[in-house]
Model the fold of this input.
Amino acid sequence: MITKPKGTVDITGTDSILWEYVNEVVSTMMHAYNYEYIRTPIFESRELFHRSVGDTSDIVKKETYDFQDKGERNLTLRPEGTAGVVRSFIENKNYALPDIKKYFYNGTMYRYERPQKGRLREFTQFGVEVLGSNDPIIDAEVISLQYHILEALHISNLQVNINSLGDLESRENYKKALVKYLEPHLDELCEDCRERFKTNPLRILDCKVDKDSSILKNAPKTIDYLNKESKERFDTVLKYLDYLDIDYEVDSQIVRGLDYYDHTVFEIVSLDKEETKANVLGGGGRYNKLIKELDGPDSYGIGFACGMDRIIDVLKEIDLYKTVEKQIDCFVMYVSEEEKLYALDIVQNLRLNGVVTETNSLNKSLKGQFSEADRLKAKYLIILNNEDLQKGLVNVKDNATKEEEKVDISEIVEYIIGNL
Ligand code: HAM
Done:
């Protein structure tokens, strides 16, 4: 038997109902906030991720799916969505358009991680990228959108953990302080961190091995090294979040695992879930240097991404699927070949009018069809029989009240729609 690759999932049954439900809520909220759908390729040139996510990040160093195509191009399956959106914004010269660009996306990402709960090798993210504005109102909008999507999905006890990395000057000052602090403790850090110390010391702060060590817990905090401008900017973002009534906690340990961030960085967690990395439902931040870094103009960017698979796990824990259980509107029942011809026409008519309809497609007895209709939780049963059909009538049974009524065949669609 051929099995699915390690770290991937099949989405079927109850899961697929939840996926569709989440996609619908996400899309509705994105449109309410006036975000435009963008779809970029699942593979991009390898260089894009090296120059954005960063050569020294764990994602690029250890987790990318790299391959060469038949034309010997070095390509990578995208490990995240931001780089592709920014690449597209630059390549299509969308920066030349008036107004800012607000994109949303929803697609699969690929990271060669050790598979475990909430950590897959193929996973799905939905996210946004806002390009062209440095106004803190956008930081607040992006965080509020992420928060309210999760709230609309009935996920309670949400908390935004937020931090600021500041501008380049602030980060350079911080880096110096961090290096000075870590130098005497190098022997106590893991081998990877000793390497990170030389290449990109900030990455030590999100090391999966040393994360909980007292050395890292007592490390200098980025917010203590913000220059005046960066500090004022961060305070303004927090003020706007207060006005929006978003629950947040300033968490100096958040530096994020991707290299492109500056200023605001944040993660959103469900406090209902035990404290593991898998309770991080989404994260994001500002990246005001990335567009220029990727050969675009000097412009601004901020965004977030949420892990769909983790969100679905939470929804399963809170039994939400019971409220989004699939139910059909109508089941059309028949036995004879003549009745079947009427069924074909009635089923099509109902479906084309938006009524979710199913019919007998396994040549079942009436008894078998009643059972199938119950399994599908049909609200109405339309039971065809030759005698009534000759008179232009069909039997309609309300499956909840069990009441039956004869309805003129020409009025069946209006009747069902009127009663749904
Ligand atoms: P990230 O923190 O790497 O950020 O990923 C965002 C979310 O994707 C995580 O919080 C998590 O829910 C989900 N996720 C990440 N890796 C996995 C995995 N292996 N399995 C399942 N879920 C996972 C980014 O990707 C940035 N591009 C976010 C961003 C957008 N920043 C600015 N704009």
Q: What stands out?
A: The chain has three domains: 13-167+227-321, 170-223, 327-419. The chain has a mean pLDDT of 94. The first strand starts at residue 36 and ends at 37.
